[in-house]
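name: query_chain
kind: protein
chains: 1
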Amino acid sequence: MKGEISVVDMRQMTEKLKEDLTIDPKSTVVIAVDMHRGHLDPEVATQPVPPEESRRVIRNTVKLLQIVRKCGIPTIYVVLQFRSKPKPGAEQLSNPFWASIDRVKESLTPGRKSTIRDHNLVGSVQVQIIPEIAPGPNDYVIDNKKRLDSFYGTDLDILLRVLKVDTVIIIGVNTNTCVLNAAFAAFNRDLKTIVISDCVASMYGEDLHHFGLQNISRCLGWVLTVPEMEELLAASNVNTQT
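structure:
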């Protein structure tokens, strides 16, 4: 195909879908995907998002958590971390694509250094959740994520069923991989799937961040801003009182 591919304008559809959207806070959770220092702390990140994107995500997530916690909505933090046994890199470099990236000494983060072999090793500072958005007393942490899908190999699915969840609000890193995978997995489980655009970012580049949001909003669920989420929750509170 010759020339640039333009983005199809589906705003009319997505706006109608937003108008149709309702949620019940009692059956809703936030899923925070990989909001750890390995992505969001420029000082120590082994697979960093751009610093300005990190600041944007942290700032908006602070606002979002204040809003959802007032509504009694818990957050489930899903954190990727790798063992260094039986040898360093064993868990992550068993993936052929990641192993190839490591062998050819390329970076997944355009214009910035990154590592797969040393990313988010158990016990490292990289696996620490960013302090400003740390779990509260009513939140949960799942720390055995090994691949892009937050459901694969973890007990996230069981926890959602225990909590009787029908709606997930997804935030985190990376928009086009782990966030998108979580959205696909939630969709496939017939969960109402919402992604907060202010609270996601991608280390892979702005183009793939935009792609991820487009793919979700046109195929899988709703993409909202923090103010839109706040308005939706306020409306749900009014509806439950009438």
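note: Residues 11-80+129-241 form a domain with the Rossmann fold fold (CATH 3.40.50.850).
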